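User: Hi! I'm a student and our assignment asks us to look at how structure tokens line up with a sequence. Could you show me two examples?

Assistant: Happy to help. In each example below, the sequence comes first and the structure tokens follow. Example one:
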Amino acid sequence: MAGGAIINHVGDGKHYPGKITIHVFLTCLMAATGGLLFGYDVGISGGVTSMDSFLIKFFPTVYRKEKGETSTNQYCKFDSQVLTMFTSSLYLAALIASFFASAITRVFGRKWSMFTGGTIFLVGAALNGAAMNVAMLIIGRILLGIGVGFTAQSAIIYLVEMAPASLRGMLNIGFQLMITIGILAANLINYRTAKIKGGWGWRVSLALAAVPAAVITAGSLFLPDTPNSLIERGHDDQARTILRRIRGTDDIQKEFADIKAAGEESKAVKNPWRSIGQRRYRPQLTMAVLIPFFQQLTGINVIMFYAPVLFKTVGFGSNAALMSAVITGLVNVLATFVSIFTVDRVGRRALLLQGGLQMLACQVTVGTLIAVMFGISGAGDISRAYAFTVVVFICFYVAGFAWSWGPVGLLVVSESFPLVIRSAGLSITVSVSMLFTFAVAQAFLALLCSLKFALFYFFGGWVLIMTGFVVFFLPETKGVPLEEMVVVWKAHWFWGRFISDEDAHLGGTSEIGDGKKAAAPTLQL
């Protein structure tokens, strides 16, 4: 079977001296906390929408439908466009904000974009915690979305630029790890606040979003900017100092020279948005659009958004549903560590392919289990043991995502862009991700009502498509310096046709084998 070129030694033509230092570890850890904002919100929004007190105050129609109509189709209990607008309004705001974040990130640096995002998120958390009506609730969500748009775009760039090539995967996945920790923390908080007497526990859940926002806001003030950003903005001496500190060696001339060359090229480009449409950037632009598109169509965010609601649908009570969401959140965190410790050893493709096959099997199994119990009508009761079986397979599905498409998809995109289009490219990635997060979140409850159990087959079909995409079109990027990445695309059996020899030479000087395109090999796991 023809497939994407697996290039294991692209970076062998150029290695930069250096090691993992405590400085680079701590700065990357702080930048990665930007993921807490998104993760906490994903977990908290699904939990509060399963709390009776929250539904009574803001969405009484949904509450009456759930409680009063005992014969209601199990698939359609929670179908409310106003309710889903509460969840998904954040992602439209993040989509728009990420485009503005691109300019701030490029002109003022990565750290100030993170600071801006954290500050706006703080205001949104305060509004949500004090919300008195739906309008106030959604305005707060929009501010949260703006904060997520800024922090996600800038934190990802920061991580990929600070990390040494040999450990870029591990350090970059720190952002995804923080997302999973945010989700787990939110699930635990929801489980406790749902038990608060007086019906105000949801306020605590929403207001506590200020905690991760305060961490990234305060922490960003102490972060140095990346050498790439400093050179791009004309601060060469400061960039040289930072590079020595984060690499733990004075032998930085080779890496500094390559970053400097990339910076000069970037400074010569006044409009990166126009440049990114050029033919030679077709591979990176394609990945910037398709990878986040595929990520959302795995169905993972609907599982995380609506886990308590979904578990209610398959037979758990309110508190038991929240506890089941805590379990899936814990699986999400633990499985992410698998990718942290393996991505720089086995590579990106192997994890994406294995995870894709695992998710596909679980989607088909969960859909079938729900079909057997509820059928087309959606009527029926489910035993605790049967519901537990559904949760087990959902956990296997979450694990498959957490060590593959969750962290690795974002990693592959972030490390593919040259400096000249990196800020614009990551803005596109974040925007596409938020657009389809919004679309899937907005449509999920309606799709569950109309497609019923086949919704899981729908997502499974997309997992099959994206796994095939990895086989044919995604080269291995493990261990390749950022300034050399164009050589990977030039060597690929398909993408090489878009990149001229001159462009490949400008992007990197090392060769692959005898300089010819790598042949399309068979599928390897």
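Example two works the same way, sequence first and then tokens:
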Amino acid sequence: MTTTVERAQYSDRVPIRSIILRPDGGSGLAGQHARVGGWVKTGRKADKDAFAFLELNDGSCAGNLQIIVEADKGDLGQLVLTGACLQVDGVLKLPPDGKKQKVELQVEKVIHVGVVDASKYPLPKTRLPLELLRDYVHLRARTNTMGAVARIRDELSYATKRFFHERGFRYVNTPNITTSDCEGAGEMFQVTTLISEAEKLEKNLIKNPPPSEVDVESAKLIIKQRGNDVAQLKSAKASKQEIGIAVAELQKAKENVLKMEERSKLQPGIPQKDGKIDYSQDFFARQAFLTVSGQLQLESYACALSTVYTFGPTFRAEKSHTSRHLAEFWMVEPEMAFAELEHDMDCAEDYVKFMCQWLLDHCMEDMKFFADKIDKSCIDRITMSAKTPFARITYTEAVELLTDAVKNGKKFENHVEWGIDLASEHERYLTEVKFQKPVIVYNYPKEIKAFYMRLNDDSKTVAAMDVLVPKVGELIGGSQREERYDVMLSRMKEMGLPIEPYEWYLDLRRYGTVKHCGFGLGFERMVQFATGLDNIKDCMPFPRSAGRADL
């Protein structure tokens, strides 16, 4: 452990975490000079306004550094306001005995003050409800809760990349704009320029109305006149220069008529063909959407590089206002060739365990914050998930367990029978009551799963699996992919999917097909699982949902 302060690599400041998160709480740095910067959490004047105590936070950790500023160093009235930004030079010193903090900073010079209007600043010293904070999405990262969420997300993101890199997976950037519906649900955001182009055209036609038939006919008469002029010059054996000028005028008249005829055909509104929207005139010359998953495209790389993954934003145009839904969310999606459902479940379990252990090893300060303020069981939950083997049961066994629970008096809002898609309450019963740990359910009815999942030998179920965890329910959904061309084609027809947009996907089965599998983890759900937050909108820096797209 060093006895000197550690500056940020690209700044003169010393990150607060490098002071207060030392094993000694920073006491070993007493006597050292440091420049720190951050935002005032709380401040108060003392000793008849002779000096002020400020709690400063720079976001590098959950904890604050107490700084002491004397009145001759700056305007204490501005410095004590919650939300003010300060950068100061000072000396670290030991506080008086009995104080909670192990070290504090005696300010020698105030370098910078970012003032705040206390009458308008929306974040008070006291805690605001998380729902209200969503109205100030541009400022809420300054709160203790959202700052901790940001650090947890960052660590989980790094852990994800490390997990897959250490196991030989290659990272692939899949497109955000797609012409395929991976889920087959149709709840996709459409990407089009037809509307903006139609609005632009309408304004243009109002400002510059299209030519009438009379205008076009008059322009054609000019062509005839220019043609006669050329003929007369040739008959009179005029010079090449004179004839050339006349020919150029004739050509110009012809081009003008072509433009007028083209413009006279313009109609306001979105282009139509055979009574339907003409997407051939759209930007991509076909219908395009924001992706709901990178899986289909990722499979093409798995069938070449063997083990790959993607990690990026996905979108779902589901008009839901529940605490479980976002319109934009991040997915971690690995794909593995030469692998089957058992391998898929092994990888998913190892990945969740790795992330849980990572949080325990690297994020304990923030996890303790969530345990204290949000969910007392969150540390126990991820500890159990990191250390305990997951239960594995078939879908049929899961339904039997739920049915037995109903017989014994358990009441569910959603009816339980074979063939249903398990609801969140069913998933949480299995993980929180029956097994009291994560559960992997596999071999689901084919009717409730996507077309690309491998049909089992019973022709009733598919090789699908979901990882269910306490607090959240479904955390991961995955499957062995259908590698048999004829079976996949039959499934697509059975589900009424158009074949043409998926011809490229079928090519992966036509040319060098291979058994392969993969899964998708909802990243915000992993954050929710770790932190215990009730609403998934608080697990995303800038949440998008039905009716809300702030910033």
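Here is something you could point out in your write-up. The mean pLDDT is 94.
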